[in-house]
């Protein structure tokens, strides 16, 4: 399938945006905290043309699904809500958006915690910016994308995914303060590369669990009389909170501290230890892991050449990330996947990319 076949003419422009993997700083972005993602090689591409019938038309090649927006006051469901949301947030920002034909294709796996949703939003906004020559910068794109996801797709997300998709590349880590949006582009720890393996376990319970954790964090911040848990730097302060707020807050505070230590320029070995500690904290204090993720992480952690490993994304399923010795990513990923699949699961290597897509 292609744009021409669906819309009967060639596209006028196209833009892409990558998925992301978060190396450290999980469940910190909605606590105004610190995150450390990097872009992955997989990306989403949006092709655009002007529609001549006065209506928007969206097609996803991945879903082989077309949605025609006949009533622009009514938010569609499913994938169209993200694109519809992007168009509407641009209109709310004061831009006039013509009726569009939108064609989406992507190599970012959906729902694995690698942020296919942000890649869809950012590539859509980039393509519209290009087509209509809009004067918006990459940070504004991330903010508009987040607004679209919250208000139109109905996901109460933080800003990390959209900032990473809009500003990160695959060669660096993006250190981001999600409160101030101050950021620094940093090299990977020396002599290291990234492995990402999807557990194959769908992220069921993810949205209810996510919303529950968010409200627990808000309750903890209220009890501690701070605006957000980011304002606590000494982890001992949370120890007087009632359970489960104590453990939830302890994860967030220690996780922020792990990110801050990692960006001071630690060795690959130390960075790996911080990732291992992050996983333990997500499993025991934040309780967002599942057995499959624990098994995959343990296999990775025990594999020679691995500095550290953890679940990545919001948890309850999805993918794991490992920091491994440079040049060994492919062999380590193959070995870990084999051991994981022998345990009865069906995983998939996402990074390094196999290139057979
Ligand atoms: P993640 O962002 O971790 O991949 P989400 O649940 O946040 O998971 O977003 C996945 C949703 O984003 C999909 O269910 C779909 O609605 C939308 N989406 C992302 N990429 C595409 C695509 N290429 N085609 C259609 N829909 C997509
Ligand atoms: Mg998402």
Shape: globular
Q: How far from one another are the termini?
A: 15 Å
Q: What does the average pLDDT come to?
A: 96
CATH 2nd-level architecture of the largest domain? 2-Layer Sandwich
> Low-confidence parts lasting 5 or more residues at pLDDT below 50?
none
Strand content: 15-25%
CATH fold naming of the largest domain:
Ribosomal Protein S5, domain 2
The share of residues in helices is: 25-40%
Which hetero compounds are present in the coordinates?
Answer: adenosine-5'-diphosphate, magnesium ion
What is the number of beta strands?
A: 11
What structural category characterises the helix and strand content?
alpha+beta
The tally of structural domains comes to 2
Counted by DSSP, the helix tally is: 10
Q: What sequence of helices (H) and strands (E) makes up the elements? A: HEEEEHEHHHEEEHHHHEEHE
CATH C-level class of the largest domain is Alpha Beta
Largest sheet: 7 strands, mixed
Radius of gyration, CA atoms, in whole angstroms: 20 Å
């Amino acid at each position: 399938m292609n744009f021409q076949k669906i819309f009967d003419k060639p596209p006028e422009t196209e833009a892409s945006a990558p998925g992301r993997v978060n190396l450290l700083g999980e469940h910190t972005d909605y606590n105004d905290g610190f995150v450390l993602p990097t872009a992955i090689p997989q990306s989403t591409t949006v092709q655009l043309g002007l529609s001549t019938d006065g209506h928007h038309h969206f097609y996803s090649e991945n879903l082989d699904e077309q949605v025609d927006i006949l009533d622009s006051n009514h938010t569609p469901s499913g994938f169209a809500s993200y694109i519809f949301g992007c168009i509407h947030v641009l209109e709310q920002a004061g831009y006039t958006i013509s009726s569009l034909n939108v064609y989406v294709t992507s190599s970012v796996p959906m729902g694995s915690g690698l942020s296919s949703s942000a890649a869809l939003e950012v590539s859509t906004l980039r393509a519209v910016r290009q087509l209509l020559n809009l004067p918006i910068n990459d940070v504004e794109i991330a903010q508009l994308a987040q607004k679209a996801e919250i208000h139109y797709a109905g996901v109460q997300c933080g800003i990390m995914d959209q900032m990473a998709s809009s500003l990160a590349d695959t060669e660096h880590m993006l250190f981001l303060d999600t409160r101030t949006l101050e950021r620094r582009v940093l090299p990977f720890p020396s002599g290291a590369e990234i492995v990402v393996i999807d557990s194959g376990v769908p992220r069921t319970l993810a949205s209810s669990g996510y919303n529950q954790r968010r409200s627990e964090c808000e309750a903890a911040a209220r009890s501690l009389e701070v605006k957000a848990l980011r304002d606590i730097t000494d982890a001992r302060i949370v120890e007087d909170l009632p359970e489960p707020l104590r453990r939830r807050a302890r994860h967030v505070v220690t996780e922020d501290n792990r990110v801050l230590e990692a960006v001071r320029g630690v060795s690959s070995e130390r960075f790996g230890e911080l990732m291992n500690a992050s996983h333990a904290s997500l499993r025991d204090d934040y309780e967002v892991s599942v057995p499959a993720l624990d098994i995959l992480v343990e296999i990775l952690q025990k594999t020679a050449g691995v500095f550290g490993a953890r679940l990545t994304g919001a948890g309850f399923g999805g993918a794991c990330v490992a920091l491994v010795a440079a040049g060994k990513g492919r062999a380590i990923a193959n070995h870990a996947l084999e051991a994981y699949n022998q345990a009865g699961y069906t995983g998939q290597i996402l990074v390094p990319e196999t290139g057979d897509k």
